[in-house]
Amino acid sequence: AERVGFKPTVRLGRTPDFESGPFDHSGIFPSAKVLYSPLCDKYWRSFFIPLIFATFTLEYNIFETMKNSWNFWGLLALGVCIILSVGKFTGSKRTVNVKGLATQEVMADHVIWPIVIRDIDNDLQSLYASINEKTGSVVGFLKSNGIEDDDISITAPTVTDRKAYEYSNEHIASRYQMQQVITVSSNDIDQVRALMSRQGELLAKGIATTTDYDYQVSFEYNGLNGLKPQMVETATRNAREVAQKFANDSGSRLGKIQTASQGQFSISDRDSNTPWIKIVRVVTSVTYYLK
Fold first, then answer.
1. Eight-state DSSP code of residue 149
2. Which of 90, 178, 71 is nearest to 126 (CA)?
3. Other beta carbons less than 10 A from residue 239's beta carbon
C-alpha cells in the first residue's frame, strides 16, 4: 500500500457520530474504528481484523461490568430505602394500651318499699276482712305522713291452703294463710326512710309487717345520663396520665389516640348498711401511639 502511495490510518477513541449505541452506522465499534484504503493488501487486513475483534470484546466486557455494577448499586439503594421505610412504619405502630377509672358517690333518687302483711285463719271470709282492715290502716299511715296516692300500689291478696299439701302437718291450727303486698314507689328518699324507721307505730295497732327475700327495699339511682360526660372525661384524663408516665419511663413521646372504648357504667351500694348511697363506676380503655 505504501508503494502505491496509500497509508492506512487508525483512529482510536469515541467518534463524534456515536449516537445510537455501542455501534455506529458503519458497523464498527467506535472505540476501534479503522479507516483504511481499499488497496491495503492482505497483510494489513490480517493485522487489523484481529485487533478490531479484540478491542470490541474488551469494550463489551467493560460495558457489561458497568451494567452489572449499576444493577448492584441500584438494588442496594432500593434495599436501604425498604429498610428505612419498614423501620419508620414499625416505629409508628408502637402503641400502649391503658385504662382509666372514674368513680363518683351519689345518693339514690328513687326507692321501692314493699310492705308485706300476712294473716291466718280457718275462715276465708274472716281472713279476708282482717287483711282488708290491716291494709287500710297501712295505707292511712302512709298517706298521713305525706305519701301520695300515685306512689302507693296494692296487689291482689294471695291465699294458701296449708292443708292442701301432702307433706303438711294434719294438726295445723289455722288452715288458710293470706298475704297482701303494699308497695311504695317514691323519689323522696328521706321521707320513705323516716317512715321505715316508724313501723313500730303499725305494730302498736296490731299490724305486723314481715320481711321476705322476694320483697326487699330497693334504692335506685336514675341520674346516670347526667354523669356520663363528666365521668368519661375524667376516666380518659386518668388514662392519658398513665400513658404519659409510661411514655416518659420508656423514653418515648405520647402520640395521638389510636382506639378508645368506653366500658359499661356500674352502680353499686357503697356498703350493706347504707344502700341509699351509691357508687357509680366506669372504666375506659385507650390505645395511644408512641413516637
1. G
2. 178
3. 24
CB atoms within 10 A of CB 213: 5
Grid coordinates in use for 67?
451494567
Residue 168's CB: how many other CB atoms inside 10 A? 12
Q: What is the pLDDT of residues 69-103, one digit of tens each?
A: 656 556 556 666 666 665 555 555 788 999 999 99
- Quick one: which H or E segment has residue 235? helix 224-249
Residue 62, all three cell numbers = 467493560
Strand-pairing partners, residue 10, are 34
Residue 28: its pLDDT value, please? Answer: 40
- Return the ∠ at Cα 148 (arms to 271 and 115), rounded to 5°: 50
Is the distance from CB of 97 to CB of 285 less than 8 angstroms? yes
12, 31 Cβ separation under 8 angstroms: yes
Among the listed residues 22, 60, 184, the one whose alpha carbon sits nearest the alpha carbon of residue 112:
184
Whether 191 contacts 141, CB under 8 Å: no
d(CA 15, CA 26): 12
Residues 6+ apart with CB under 8 A from 227: 104, 106, 280
Nearest CA among 134, 131, 130 for reference residue 157: 131
Bridge partners, residue 35, by sequence:
9
* pTM over the 0.85 mark: no
What are 241's three cell numbers? Answer: 396520665
Structure-block grid coordinates of residue 104: 363518683
**Rounded Cα gap, residues 137 and 197, in angstroms:** 17
Q: Is residue 276 a contact partner of residue 108, using CB atoms and an 8 Å limit?
A: yes
